[in-house]
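User: Some background: our group keeps a shared notebook of sequences we're curious about, and every so often someone picks one and asks for a predicted structure to add to the entry. Today it's my turn. The entry only has the sequence so far, pasted here. Could you supply the structure so I can complete it?
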Amino acid sequence: YPQAGCLFVDLGQAALPTPVAETRRMPGVRQGAKNAMSSLFSLHGKRALVTGGAQGLGRMIAQGLLSAGASAAITSRKEEVCRQAAAELAEFGECRPLAADLSSPSAATELAERYLEAFETCDILVNNAGKTWGGPIHSFPDKAWTDVMTVNVQAPFALIRDILPALVAAGKPLDPARIINIGSVAGMKPEGLQAYSYSASKAALHMLTRDLAGELAAQNITVNAVIPGYFPTKMTAHMRDEDAVDPDLLAHIPLRRLGRADEIAGVVVYLCSNAGSYVTGALIPVDGGLVGCS
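Assistant: Of course. Here's the predicted structure to add to the notebook entry:
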């Protein structure tokens, strides 16, 4: 029942805006539900930049974007690694290598300039490149703070700032430009990794995501963070071998397994597609339940 101070609108009699009316009809079989769902998640014609896209989670994400129809540029510190990855990813769509060491804000500025020379526009920016450092607290060096915070927080901010005009130009009210920051469960909950600067940097990136989401919404840009748990990447290599994963790690994860490439890529594709166009400021764990079940 209505309460004081509450406004209720009878949408049953209200004229729905065209986009909403269309979405109400979309599931109907007569309109071709299968085609409608394909269109809902299609990234055809979109252009993306994925930092750290030559290896690990970044490569999983880049392949997902390409498979959904986007064109992409990927980065890596090592030029040969970047070129080889781009050549292999070309099987799924147009992929260009842009070698870049994002260990300074000036390097992020240079990357933005080189990307825009190649692609001219940017619909999707995925800040995935990251750095970690682990060690006991009594010997944890000051250098581990400067380097990790620069790569994981300052460089993503500088890249967003310098590529922002292209994102603004690409964004539309019903089809905004997208920024996806790749965080970590280590920035959401204590994981006992002794990676003090890393966990702090990811928590900072999560908060930066929310700050920017509020500021850039009026410019038709959504900003979200994807929070990965444990995936088969170099960062978890010490916890597994080719045949087995550390049983203590698996027991720590509610779903008792590592994540798959399509599971991280699928969430990013969703956020970048029409299906995710009304989502901003979200921190989305893809972690087998580590955050949500603790």
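Suggested note for the entry: Strands lie at 47-50, 71-76, 95-99, 124-127, 177-182, 221-228, 283-286. Residues 143-170 form the longest helix (28 residues).
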